[in-house]
Request: fold
Amino acid sequence: MSAPIAIALVSSLRAENPSETQLRFVGDDTVQITVIDTLFERSDPVAVKPEDNREWVPDPYVSFGSVGRLNGQDGYFSGDANVTQPQLFMAWPKVVPDSRLSGFRTGSEPHQQHALADQPEGWSVTVNGQPVTVVALYRKSTPIRTESLDVRRWDSTKRHILTFVLDQPIPQGAELSFKGPTVATIQGYKPVTAFSEAVHVCQAGYPVKGPKKAYVGEWWGHDKNGMPGNTDVILTEQTGWRLIDELDRTVVRTGTLELVKPATEPHWNEENFNGCDIYQADFSDLDRNGDYHLHVDGLGDSFPFKVSDAPYADALRLAARWYYHQRSGCEIAEPYGEGRTRPRNGHPEDGLVVWQTDVQLGRTSEGYDGSSVFKILREQPIGNAGLSGSTAAWSEDLNPNAWGGWHDAGDWDRRIQHTDVVYHMAHIIEAFDYARTLDLNIPESGKPFSDESVRARKNSEDRGDGETVLPDLIHEALWGISLWRRTQREDGGIGGGVEYSNSGIFGSVSWNPVQIAYCYGPEDWASYWFAFSAAKLGHVIKHVCGDTTLGDSLIDEAVHAWYWAEQEFLSKNPYAPAPLNEDGTEPKPEKWVSVVSRSRVAAAASIYRASGDATALKVFEDNNPFEPLSDNPAKEIQREIFQFSYYDYLQAGQEGRPTNPEIVESIRGWIRYRVKRAERMGRDFGVHSTATYPWGPGWLRFGPGSNWRAAHFALYFAANGELPPEMQAAVVEGMWFGLGCNPANVSFVQGLGRRDYADPLLIDGRGKPPIPGQISFGVAGGVMHKWEQQKTEGSIYPADQLAWPKYAQIFESRTIAISSEHDIKANAMEWLIACAMVNYQAPEAPPEHDE
Reply:
């Protein structure tokens, strides 16, 4: 049996992360070491052959519904419906012998409440061969990979970071030795300098012209008595730093640290998110390209980083190309895969089917209602065609056009909300000239929509003008919306998309799933969403790209969906007066009315700009959240939701369509106010105040790691045609947290850091390398679910999540979804917008792909 996981993990730690293979020093008497605990062996998937002895009874509704045995070996299977790809079998992973360190285990007995490795007296430490005493020992442990070893039995690779405070100073050049409970002897010398976990930099680099800052400070975890430790004991504003050129080791800048966020200063609800003082080293005046690292006295060195003209060009290309890897109905092959391949998935020509239902997405837990989507779909009267031994069903219940779009969040659903990405891809092409030449190396690159290699067409007649070469990002947007274009009903109705019977079954792969696939039925909410995005895409293709034929087709489809939604929505009499509350106040509208009304008003702006439709104009002007003209406008139309639709209304006026001057001025005023009212999001390493975000700390999943506020600046830029220097600086600073300038020194984006997030959520093809450009939430956005705690039990220390400072809660396990997952229209889309915004003033465009 091969051991690719163990080999890859160990080699990556040694090659990219010096902190894993050497001692680190803090002050005169403190040493930090990293211990990796528990590695796994995973065999490669094997194709199931007809002569094999297969024991398999699939259940498409449960996570372990595809376990079984192949030729006497236990493991799990993919589905077997694909007529062009074999069924796959994967044996359960195994723990590498002797890699599990029992010294870090706790138990239920009184004497097992503390791990042996947390007892200072359990460690033998020498300096130059002489024993020394450990006076304090702190530990923080996180998972960096979690595997299921059998049904409902999990284990994790752990990264233990231990900080030892010794009873005497450590001389320069001294030889040290550490031996602990089940930890093999770790030896090393105290060098002149070494890597430090407490020095945080943007691992993708900094712009020559723009802010350049590092942040310094580290929470060490807890000792055996539950007391925290941190770098506050050694850092002051007199602590010096040096910026060192990697090429010739010369010092190019020096300074002293600046305290920017004391641990006593709260972020939110009287709570500080850092667990330590945070200091800043500002070298923004550096004005030359090069490779550098930062040295902080008493701590050590940062990861190396670049200073260049366009440091985030690769970030933009990866953020956009990531959507290609998320396609459903598309093979990932060379040269477009750039090292990654995957069979065509979700396509009817491969024998995969999608069952048509009347279920409305909005009326489920994945829309705006609380009813479990999986329970509702399971009750649908359809067959289970595609799995061995399942019942057949009637062909008229199938929807062969339900393919295309993008997968979301590690699994394979495709929901109408994802078309928000389509809208914003079109907006990026409209707003940023340079993005129109961005080379994504996708099959459609450099081709018109009519080219035979373009598979996003809804039918054979859907060919555009046959001549206009579309930007790559527009081709990607057309793939994203293709599912809904194909499945739009003749009367204009749009369904919510495609859902699976379970979000993740062990062994199941997108090109041969175990799950049942369902297509949602038409509804007003989904139809408004489609109208919002399709009208925008059509307008940009027509007026920016120059393909009038394709642009008009999309606009017509959007208008058709809009009018179907209007008839459906208004037939329910959603705005009928309701009885007053007992105190005489008006009651809030029902949730479905508020949610559908928001998409309705947003779609109205997009439809009006693209088509000039008078009905859409009246809907927007009567119900907009700024200066509604109606005496009884729709309630709870929130300004922060569908915010870019207001830009479409502004632009409609700029392009010659009638608009209301009062509404226009109110929108412009709100855009100006919003970008200036809050602390700069760019200073999100403990410096800002989250009290300005009223939904509380849950924004952590979508804020620091994805440069969330860059979209605010992008809207300001679109409305005003320029971005003041302080706003551009904020966009730049907002890139840093997600690119490694965070307490874990982890890049949340795959392929852009010295230490990538170790175990991002990816269900498709377990054990394969992550997708380049895949972004993870990073910081846990709330308290872990019970199932997340169970799967990672024993891998986190301190074990109580609430004992961790919020920014330090970067748990690198695919089973902790609130940290490892992504959202295609939340943090992934926000990151794409941020990357487009941060590159618009770069002196050179993002690089083209080299064949």
